[in-house]
Structure formats: C-alpha cells, structure tokens
Amino acid sequence: MEYTIDSAVKTAHSMYVYESSEKADEKEMDYPFDGIWFSMYDVCKLYHDGIIEDVEKEEFEEAKQFLKDTQFLTQDYQDKVFEF
Asked: For residue 3, what are the contacts with CB-CB under 8 A and spacing of at least 6?
C-alpha cells in the first residue's frame, strides 16, 4: 500500500503501538507525522529490547512494517536506521 500523510495518520491512530506511545502528535508540532512516527518507533524499540512487554509480537511486526512503509513521509527520520 502506498501511504499518504492522511492515510498514514489514520492507520497509525488505529494501531495498538500508537495507543501505547506518547502520542506526540497531540502536542504542538510543526510536522505532527514525525511525532507519530518516532513515538511508535520508540515503543517498538522498547519492546524489542525487552523493556516493555504489553505489546504482542504481531502488533510489533505490524507497527515495524508500518514504520518502514511510511518512513518516506517523515521529515526528520527518512535516513533513520532501524535498531530492531
């Protein structure tokens, strides 16, 4: 699926990993999708590192794929190397 900002935001808001994140896009930001993306990245990293356990493996995999599929929509994270 090729995402747009609108479809990516809608998809992210429906994901458990987003619900577990700090929901940074709810704060005042110049580019809210970066907040969504990096908040979800943080949750995935914490899950991968065993720091949080309330995410199911399937939810992690779904979020990881979403992050990869939407990385091109970010402004600050297009070159971010995944640490998980």
From this structure: 11, 69, 70, 73
Closest CA to 8 of 55, 72, 56, 58: 72
Contact between residue 83 and residue 45 where contact means Cβ atoms under 8 Å apart: yes
Q: Write the DSSP symbol of residue 29.
A: -
Contact 73, 3 (CB under 8 A): yes
Q: Could you report the per-residue pLDDT of 49-79, keeping only the tens digit for each?
A: 999 999 999 999 999 999 999 999 999 999 9
Tokens of 6: 């609108």
DSSP 38-70: HHHHHHHHHHHTTS---S-HHHHHHHHHHHHHH
Contact 52, 75 (CB under 8 A): no
pTM score, whole prediction: 0.94
